[in-house]
Amino acid sequence: MEGKHLSWFVAIVLGVLIFKMHIYEAFGEQDEDIPHNEVRNWALKFGVDLWEFGRQFTKMNEIKNRFKDNDIEVKRKDGIILLRELAAEVKNFMDFKRNAVMRLMDSAEQAALSELDGQGANAESPLSQQHYDARRINEYNADGKLADGARHMDIRFMRRFERLPVNLSLSSILVPHGVDLDEADVKSALQWSAHLDPLFQNNLEQDPALSWQYFGSSSGFLRRFPGTAWPPEGSKGSKLIHDFRTHNWFVQAASSPKDIMILLDASSSMSEKSFDLAMATAFNILDTLGEDDYVNLITFSEVVKSPVPCFKDRMVRATPDNVQEIKSAVKAIKLQDTANFTAGLEYAFSLLHKYNQSGAGSQCNQAIMLITESTSESHKEIIKQYNWPHMPVRIFTYLIGKDSGSRSNLHEMACSNKGFFVQINDYEEARRKVIDYALVMARPMIMYQADHPVHWSPVFLAGKSGGLGRDSEYQRRLVTTVSTPVFDRRNHSVRVANLLGVVGTDVPIEEIRKVIPQHKLGPNGYSFIVDNNGRVLYHPDLRPLSDGNQYIDQLKPKYASVDVTELELPETEVGNDHEVVEMNKNLLNEMRGDMIRPKEGETEFTVLNHYDDAKRVSTRTHRYFYGPIEDTPFTLAIVLPEKYGSHELVSQQEIRHSRNNITEYFKGDNWRVHPDWVYCEYNSVSDLEKERENSGEYSSRDQEPSFGSPEEQVLHFLSRAGRPGWKWMSVRPKSPQPHHSLHSGSNGNSPSSSHYGSQHLNAQSSRKAEPYYCDRTLFQSLVRDAMVTDGLDRNTTSTSNGKEDKQQGYQKFVVATSFVATRSGLLRWIDHIKRAEDSPEPHFSEDNVRAMDTSWYKRAIDQHTVEPDSFVYSVPFGSGYAIKSNATLVTASHAIFVEHRGHKAPAGVVGLQFQHDSLAKHFINITSACTGVTGCKRTCASDNLDCYVLDNSGFVIISEEMEHTGKFFGQIDGTIMDSLVQDRIYKRVTVNDYQGICSDSDNPYTAAGGILKPNRMGSWFLQHLVALSAAWISLLPASLRAWPQDEYTYENEDVVFVENNYSDEYEPFENDYNLPVDQEMDEFFTTADVEYTTPPPKQHKPHAGPRFAPDPQNARRCDLRTDLYMLQPERLNQGGQNNPLKGKLTNCHVSGCERPFSVQKIPHSNLILLVVDTLCPCGSKQLDIEPMEEAGVVGACSTRRQSQEQESRRRPKKCINYHPEEIEIQQCGRGSTLLKTSATVIVGHLLMVIVTFVLTNA
What we know:
Layout: H1 2-29, H2 36-58, H3 60-68, E1 73-76, H4 79-118, E2 156-158, E3 164-166, E4 172-174, H5 184-193, H6 197-206, E5 213-217, E6 222-225, H7 248-254, E7 258-265, H8 272-287, E8 294-300, E9 304-305, E10 316-317, H9 320-330, H10 341-358, E11 365-372, H11 380-387, E12 394-400, H12 404-415, E13 420-424, H13 427-432, H14 436-441, H15 443-448, E14 455-456, E15 460-464, E16 476-487, E17 499-508, H16 509-514, H17 518-521, E18 526-530, E19 536-538, H18 550-554, H19 578-596, E20 601-611, E21 616-628, E22 635-641, E23 647-650, E24 671-672, E25 680-682, H20 685-694, H21 710-721, H22 753-765, E26 772-774, H23 776-789, E27 815-822, E28 827-831, H24 844-847, H25 855-866, E29 872-874, E30 889-900, E31 903-915, H26 916-927, E32 945-950, E33 956-959, H27 969-972, H28 974-982, E34 986-999, H29 1017-1033, H30 1037-1042, E35 1115-1127, E36 1141-1145, E37 1155-1161, E38 1168-1173, E39 1188-1189, H31 1199-1204, H32 1238-1256
Parallel strand pairs: 7-8, 7-11, 11-12, 12-13
Antiparallel strand pairs: 1-23, 2-3, 4-6, 5-6, 5-17, 8-9, 8-10, 14-16, 15-16, 16-17, 18-19, 18-22, 20-21, 21-22, 24-28, 25-26, 27-28, 27-31, 29-30, 30-31, 32-33, 32-38, 34-35, 35-39, 36-37, 37-38
């Protein structure tokens, strides 16, 4: 038995020794390990072959020479002069929109004054029947006859108006839920606002770039021009729209900035149903606030609580993110204890006073919104202590349910503090009645009747784009709205201050960008606009959250709010010099501060640029030039790349002096122009109609006269330019003189009738009737580029199948498409392989028509600064394939720079798309052979060597395993990738995405995400018993005499009023929002009863695995981060030597073996050759470039968001929050309606008697 064990032992020892011998023998061979000289030669040959092939096939030198053969100039750009020129264009554009709105306001006020004073609300007037209800437009029965109550409207499809069928002479009426068009005040407003239709039409004639114009009546209907049916064709929405009176463009135009404290009763006296309704009321108030407002919500029971921990003792900006944070936190509130109104009011008054005295917050309106189901007193003492006699804080009270006993108390609280009382009985009222507070806050502004503040809303996703591009129909456009209030100028028998409504017009961002031509900024240059709060109006990296089609279905905008510091990402890598890192951050913050002031300036710093859905990253030094857009809250910035953005190629073809017919250079269908650039365009539909009538062309009455494509439009103007008498019309129409309101009569009442009538005539005569506009520089550059690139397909050396002649010494590359894209937006291509008609893949031209915006164009321009004689190669991500089915194409692009008098500027990019398998075969042929005289033992064909071609972002271009194509190499061998980073061949760059999208289905404040409330049947009964008792007590005669019988309360109590010291002009920038609240003011702040007991947000754990975008209903903004990689080519070219870098993985296996690898730069490319020895069985980890949500605290309480809360802002110019005679207005909400009739009194008495009898005999 022992002998058997001994033999087993000997066998095991011998086995281990043999294994060791094999390992050592293998690594004995590693004396030669990897044939580094061969690696260098393979890379050299592969790179040179590709370069020579691409250079000749794309005819880059011929194109460059053709440019040089003509008159050219490489001109230096002056950034500040260019900025001023573009800012003036944007100002002119915005002046048109603002003046259109001001004319609407003027006409609306005059029409209301004339109509209501002259006729009253005369329902018999013919005008009262003239409105077109959008729900009933062109509604026909099955027999083809117009349905009862419907009206016919002639309509035609118009691109400019979201591709909807519209009528350019009439407006239509859109109605939210709960608005009855037969109510007296609604009928009256419908009647006088019908007079706006001629002015709507006149505005559009003056400014054909105008989008939707509208008048939103305070009574609830929306008059929109041009007229169209609702819901739009293809919409899944109902016939009712979302109530526009809660939207930013309406509320913010109607009221000055404000600090709002919402007090939400979270005591046990609240029933579950009531608290749901109270919460809905609070949320609807929050939804009316904007970026100029400050807010906080506290709940009160026995103690006061701040649902959001980091908002405790603070007011925060009412950004969408902060509002969403408050909502999420409130949903986790537990109802408990009794209501301590005194503690809640003391807290709110103290905090508002603290902000007012310290110069923080909005420094304008202040208000408390009290939401409760019942209160036993009016809390006079605490209000008197904090708010009388000046009443700097308005109080708005919201009674949830029908507690008649609490009604009088809450009514008194609101009426005696310049507020308003509202009773909320259902969710519809919670939505509809919250707007009353804004109408009350508008009173001082209306009473002065002098200032009509112009408000620009944040951007939002609207309907379909109006562009000519083939894909525009599937794109939605970004829009901002400019609006201003409309005042009631009538003299009333009692003192009132009525807001008739708000007028506005939508301003598509795509129209603003038209006046900032991309060709003036050049490749990789861009522009952006920032508002007074540091939020971008547009930016090339702005990605608004999806609205789930709520605008298309309900006309409800979802506003975007992204700070410029969340889009411009300064380079902040740890490996960099710490001083440089801090300098980049500081320069960005300084620029933001200057832009908000606003102040003209320039700066320069290095930023991160990400491409291809944040899978690639690069660094680039930018030069920023910024300055104000006068008479707006905006500042414009233009950004030019430091290395090549300061020069531009000037090469134009003067059309009128051309000997040849210039349309000859635009033959065929293998060319496109950038669909978003303006080469030439007609200023209005009527101008185009006239031109077509003159030329005998037919146009359909149902369709807008338009062009089928941008190329058709270019060809049209090319033919026009060849006619005698052609004029360029290169100056855009100038806006009329700015609107100056003449409302400065002695009593400030009504404008003069002559002003009302002459305003339109003056504006109309100030604009020249130019039928079209042409960008002469761009148009003539396009013609020159067409001449330079024309005919390249007629003398190509390739055969029809795209295979290069073998006699030139090149392996066969199967080219599918070759192309050239130029600085003027021209794209030409040649298809070398006939494309299958049933191919599911889009043609090259479909995805790349906006060539200058594509990754291959941008990267080629940047690559020129790294290695001028090179191509940038890429393959689609994750495009690995099996040998038998290959459709993967490699894209290669090269930038053409033209030199003149020692300066170079980009002229365009040439490129190829060729089949990946032909590239892979050529690579295998090269790397399977020995190039040296002495031969080599191992090649890439050997089993123990793996060879890869990686691009400058670490993605696999070629591998022996075809399924690796397009994968990130770190997912294949993360250990080697880590080693490449440690050897500084690649640089790991952390990229933060502050516009990430995560799921909001899990409320971070509670695992369930619901509202946690105990079930208290006894509490419910007790509550209603108390309510009945209060109702019975309220039937006393004294109360009958005190309560009004009409809709409004008119108090006769004399209140001593001392004018407050609020100024209607804001302080300069230095005394701004972001000043920290003075610590010395803490003595004013009552915190004895304040307690923070809401559970803090859960610590976030990063999600593992691929991320999926949540549906829009559950989407929220979040901070994502990912590690991306950049090749460091200078590391591979040290000392001008192109030798491979040798590396080894050590200690990666228990045997102690090593894993060598070799890295060689492939010349004339953005590629490296990586050869790895596979003998040592090292383990390999995986690296991921999938974005992950930042770990730790999420949302508003994160460190980044907290620091962002302290960033500077600039207040609007005007704050109108006080008028000495406002106290005379007695309308402060509806009082009790229980006592309108004697029957109600009788029923109340009977009910109380029955309840008393039951309780007595129980």
